[in-house]
Amino acid sequence: MQVFHTESKIILTCNKRLSSYLADEVEALGFDIKRTFQTGIELFGTVNDCIPLNLNLRCASQILYSLGSFKAADPKELYDNLVQIEWEKLIDFAGYFTVTSNVNNEHILTPLFANVKVKDAIVDRIKQVKGIRPNSGPDQNKTVVHLYWQDDEAEIFLDTSGETLAKHGYRKIPGKAPMLEALAASTIIATGWDKKSPFVNPMCGSGTLAIEAALIATDKTPGLFRMNYAFMHIMGYDEQIFFTERRALKDKSIKELGFRIIATDLSEDAVDISRKNAKTAGVEHLIDFAVCDFAETEVPEGPGVVMFNPEYGERLGVHTKLEMTYKRVGDFMKTNCKGYKGYVFTGNPDLAKKIGLKASRKIEFYNGKLDCRLFEYELYDGSKREPKPE
């Protein structure tokens, strides 16, 4: 059970439609990907390999290290297999663990029942060997065990992340309808932004897009905002590996930028929240904030990226006020952002039509369960023909 030094299957999970961006991140770290699927990727490595993955990745949710797979037709068979695992070499009898699961089995009406069977197997095994049982509960801030059980195929994992990686740790004040950090980072990566030219974010809300842009540009990874992961609570953990990796991340991050990141919002409260979140992220000095109507946002000379995440409204039925807003967004990009690439992220295709520009790309995402698109617009300067309204 030397999981820190023994290679096994590792599953990196993410939200739907983010796996291609996650794969790019993983390959950039030097890992070989064995398989890519809709909600994640698969590779092989040790729990020590999971440490840089947890600290570096912007698009991931959980990093799961497989302890083994087996057949389990019912809860008894699940228990019988799990009680054979040497849990006493993974979880301290004086420690704490929690169980999460993804279950689809005819005998299981609620995942909580499956979680209890896993917990019972772990507790019974450790109590049998050590004479004392560890504590367990719902908190994911210590050791986390994950069960994947579909029909009669089961696999048990150590979740080396614990709390989700999709939240990057700097956003203490969420604001109204915030975009998940992993999603925001993925949409910026999807633009192909060169990290050398201006990034303009009108309607910035709680500032997530602008902050993620600053973090990407400075090579500042989410691991710099977090000091607790589930891998730290597995027996055999060497804290020196974590601190060495974290120091390397800190040393490689850039302190200043040679271009501007601009974030504006009509709401003074939203800009105040954005500033505070940016300060927590250590990038407040890299972002020019302003309170104004989006149409008054300053746009430096291009090329660059201008990115909107406006309200979507209801999926069915169009609001006249939002129709006008989307039309004004199109007018603003066409008039003020020549030489830029423009992006609008929305879950309402009817409102997107009101932008009045022909999209060069429509990139698929989900925001929660809502089907969304990132619309890309080539905003040519005077030397090229401007896009015709749809």
Describe this structure in words.
The chain has 390 residues and is an alpha/beta fold. It contains ten helices and 15 strands. The strands form two sheets. It has an eight-stranded mixed sheet. The longest helix is centred in the N-terminal third of the chain and has 20 residues, at 111-130. The radius of gyration is 23 Å and the shape is elongated. 42% of the residues are buried. The model is unreliable at 383-387 (pLDDT under 50).
Mean pLDDT: 93
Widest sheet, order of strands: 2-3-1-4-8-7-5-6
Going by helix content, strand content and strand pairing, the class is: alpha/beta
Distance between the termini: 61 Å
Primary descriptors:
single chain; 390 residues; alpha/beta; 8-stranded mixed β-sheet; 7-stranded mixed β-sheet; 10 helices; 15 strands; 30% helix; 24% strand
